[in-house]
Amino acid sequence: MDDVLASQVAAGEVVERPASVVKELVENSIDAGARCIRVEISRGGISRLRVVDDGCGMGRADAEMCLLRHATSKLLDAAGLFDIRHLGFRGEALPSIASVAHIDITTRRAEDVEGTRVTCDGGEMEPPMSAGCAPGTEICVTNLFFNTPVRRKFLKSDETEAGHVEHQVKLHALAFPNIRFVFSKEGQGVFDVPATHDLRRRIADFIGREQAARLMRMRPTEAPGVRVHGFLMPMAAANRNRRMQFIFLNGRPIDDPIVMRAVKDGFGGFPTGLHPGLFLYLEVDPALVDVNVHPAKREVRFRRPSEITLAVTDAVAATLAAHARGESDTEAPAPAPQAQTPPAGAPRTPFQLRPVLEPSQEELPLPPAPKPQPADAPADSPSAPVPQEDEPDLPNFRHIGTLHNTYPVFENSEGLVLLAPRAARERIIFERLLAGNKHPLASQRLLVPEILEMDARDMGIALEVKTQMEQAGFLISLFGRNTLRVEAVPAFLPLRRVAAFVQELLQLFTRGEVRLNRSRSPFEPFAMQLARQYARQEDIEPLLQRPLPLLAELLRCEIPYCTPTGKPTLLPFAMSEINRKFQAQ
Question: Are the C-beta atoms of 232 and 215 separated by less than 8 Å?
Fold first, then answer.
């Protein structure tokens, strides 16, 4: 296996998408002691991505070697694997990226008169050249996966890939608030967050001041070699996905089931299907954790997991108890996490847990959390009484009761029929939506538009679904970065909780549970999910009070006997079958 092929094999683990490239390059910038990191992308980072830092830079000799496999590893010996203090340590990233793209590196140390420029095209390196540049390093990656078209086919749309890149930069910015991060795409600035020592300020830069005002500062908890701090969202702000869960270990974002189980234990359990929001920062002695168990380093292995679990559980429980007592969360503020490691080559220092600092003068003054306001329910909301009107003429059906206050029971010439109200409404709404497929359905404007904050990774998919939502009668517009504004809803679907309903509907697509099939009308699978979700949250009490109109509307459907997904709406029991059960003659 030649060196280029070996690098391409390594790229299969290191470089999954443009966000993976950005992750590796930004980690190198942080390890280099940068105080400002700029990330620029075009076409989601597939066409071009550029990372510029003001770190220590490289001399000519290091610049010549940086594209060789393992040449930039920060490990000096085998013992270093058990004491990893850098974000990047394997030395595979740059050569792996260079093997599947065109890469251009310009770098200079502060003490050097001139810098060095190194280029590599698909693993073929050109001779280095002298270059004039500011101290630091600039890396430009273009035409990603140009020589591995199979890998390129697995990439998503440019907007989706851009969302993943933005999320990756956001993770680093949350992990290191003491560093300024600037992110732009297609030549337009997306965010520019200044360096700060106030962690709440950095979090507010991404979730907004009002959301940040609701954060509960965690009571810092320490154990031998372990320190836990951060912020919790109140239980009322729990989500049906993990988009608001951020866990960092020594500045490294991780996904760890042990930590998440400890968080839920600290809450005293958590409702099934809901996930608490949190910004959790773990500082652990590197000798007590192995970060070299996953290609992307998202998973780790703790050497004493019980101590981690206890520290996290205690920190969460103590925070909730203090909040319940009404104690201020500014009595013991947590310092912003700092980069734990000096630039490569600098002498190592023993691992020490940072002491709890006094409140910083830079503490962000945040407004008090807004008081919950009752949602305005339209007059025809599901909870409003059903207007009395003449019963429909259904001579073949007679309502004889309701089974367990759930299923209306009808008698007809053939026997008994049970009606499932939610399933019936799902079929009715679905066919109503399809009937308006050729022309957008009528909309009802909201008195006050609803604002939805979207995760950067989800915005691309939300924009893809936007056309179908407008076809169904929703009116949705962009309202700043990663924010949507719902201005109108379908006139025939009264909604009590507009923001929550739309958010949950979009999550079905952003989580990948539902995809718009391109081989047929993309509106049909969307209509199926919209009808299903609305029927599940609709109040069925008014329907149970007057079941004949519901049955009449169902029987007018083209396919009245099942939902769009095949579940029955009507369950018949023929007299012949009933007689047979009773062995009657």
Answer: yes
**Alpha-carbon Rg for the chain in angstroms:** 29
Amino acid 303 reads R
CA-CA distance, 252 to 233, in Å (whole number)?
A: 21
β-pairing verdict for 180-185 and 36-42: parallel
DSSP string, 271-315: -TT-B--EEEEEEE-GGGEE--SSTTS---EESSHHHHHHHHHHH
Q: Which residues of the chain have pLDDT under 50?
A: 9, 12, 330-337, 339-389, 518-519, 585
Supply the pLDDT for residue 133: 94
Cα atoms in the 13 Å half-sphere on the side-chain side of 512: 3
pLDDT at 371: 41
CA distance 532 to 461: 20
- Strands, sheet with 570-574, edge to edge from the N-terminal-most edge strand: 398-403, 407-412, 415-419, 570-574
Helix 547-555 vs helix 421-435: crossing angle, to nearest 10: 40
Q: Is 278 helix (H, G, I), strand (E, B) or coil?
A: strand
pLDDT, position 384: 38
Token pair in block for residue 479? 């309202």
Q: What is the pLDDT of residue 348?
A: 38
**pLDDT for residue 5:** 52
Question: What pLDDT is attached to residue 7?
Answer: 53
- Select from 459, 453, 514 the least CA-distant residue to 164: 459
Alpha-carbon dihedral sign for residues 146, 100, 21, 133: negative
pLDDT of residue 515: 57
The end-to-end CA distance of the chain, in Å, is 83
8-state DSSP, 536: H
Token pair 């007059």 in the structure block, residue: 379
Q: What are the residues whose beta carbons fall under 8 Å from the beta carbon of 494, sequence distance 6 or more?
A: 377, 378, 380, 381, 382, 384
Cα separations (Å) of 275 from 261, 262, 267, 509? Answer: 11, 13, 11, 18
Segments of 292-382 assigned E as strands = 301-302
How many C-beta neighbours within 10 Å does residue 561 have?
14
